Amino acid sequence: MRRLAGDFLRPYAGRMAAALVCMGLMAGATAANAWLMQPMLDRVFVAHDEHLLLLIPLAVIALAAVKGVSNYWQSVLMTTVGQRVVADIQLGLFARLMRADIAYFHANPTGTLISRFTYDAGMLRNATTVVLAGIGKEAVTAAFLVALMFYQDWLLALIAFIVFPIAIRPIVGIGRRMRRVSANTQSEIGQFTTLLDQTFQGARHVKAYGMEGYEQKRAARIIESLYALVERAQRIRAVASPLMETLGGVAVALVILYGGHQVISEARSPGAFFSFITAMLLAYQPMKALAGLNANLQEGLAAAQRIFTVLDVEPEIRETPNARPLAVRGGEVRFSDVRFAYANGTPALNGVSFVAPAGKTVALVGASGAGKSTILNLIPRFYDAAAGTVAIDGTDVRETTLASLRGAIALVSQEVSLFDDTVRANIAYGRFGASEAEIVASAKAAAADEFIRALPQGYDTLVGEQGVKLSGGQRQRLAIARAMLKNAPILLLDEATSALDTESERQVQAALKALMHGRTTVVIAHRLSTVVDADVIHVVDAGRIAESGTHGELLRHNGIYARLYSLQFADQATRDYGFAIRAVGS
Fold first, then answer.
1. pLDDT in tens, 407-422
2. What CATH number labels 415-487?
């Protein structure tokens, strides 16, 4: 609560102070209405004072106007503060996650992170708008009415409130239970969001494998768990109402018993008694509301705690205080005895050393899981080496600014990331401001211009989430066009042509050769036919460089590379033979 107030509410202290003034006017008007009961009964109905008969209704109208206008402005001001606080928190969350490491996204499901922005932010919005405004308004109103009661008769006021301290402990207990239930609910919401995200993204595979029933059962388990948690929360929240009703009834009974005896004995006028009991009944409602708002407040604080957990995430990949912009002269990439293990302790690289000479093409081949992608991820500092150094033109990448390092690198991965935007925006992603001619030229170089112009709106066609409206090969060609437009001196290709058909691959390979000319290129390829022309091929095996050389040298060495190549050649020959047999049969 202190952090929420200090970090996010403090900038809006002026608006909150104005809202507090409005709350004070509201509370004063409410207390004044209760106070008017005494002259109305004693002077108008008992003493028949016609002069007050005109003044008191006018006073009631004036107080109602003050109360209405004050309520409007305090509601507007507090709602604005609450919405602004949530917007600031969401902006902070997004900025923090944009700075987070790749490892953080791998460790936290997308749905769980999304729930921080949606469900948790919604709970926090409720706490800062409804609860904060409600607590302020109800507390100030109750304070004014209680002050009036003590002003009228302090002994009767003590009698009225003697039972309420009994409610403090149960209400605190209700709040604690609500926070626990709310935390569990928010965790389930995160899991549910993750399930929805995975199922909708994989709808094609769900249907292909007939897993609709299985996914429905998974969803049903979480939905039923959420239902049970929400129902439990409602039961816990509802406990406060009968507790306050019962205590309020006891308090009213005690006041009637003692106050009625005073009126009968003429120690107090009927007007004074009814003015007191009116103030008491008016004060009972905000006190009851405060007891209920405590449960909502605890839900909001549980959400705030989860949000602050994300806001406190510090990336491990950070710039050093003396980091300087990377000045790329040629673009040589050098690995020197690099070792790396993932957070779970799984070793990935064990003393990798090699050089990608400036302007040359270096290929990394090997079995899946050998460490090729890890090597690629260390160059733009998606991860940092545990030991050894990765250097560009002799400068350790950890001593450069991240913006300059990643600005010097273009990446095309087998996992194509397209955004639900136009074709033009996806190509220009990372270099907004590029001219139309440059975008079209990049698309032509990537063999993408022809199919783009065949789309309904050409370059203005929306590609859908993750490019769902395009084929795999089309998505890959847009990713290649994006890298071409960036025109970086260092090019990283991770199975860049894996999703292309033979004709498209031939076109893109020709474009890639033109793009790679004069640039340092590191290529990962499982299809060895695509890297036979590389200047150097490194065979990665179990986190080490097992063999190095040109295609011809490695074949003559008759080692791992030769074995992989012969297996692929045999598989290709078998496929070609099968095609020939089918062609003859047809």
1. 899 888 877 778 888 8
2. 3.40.50.300
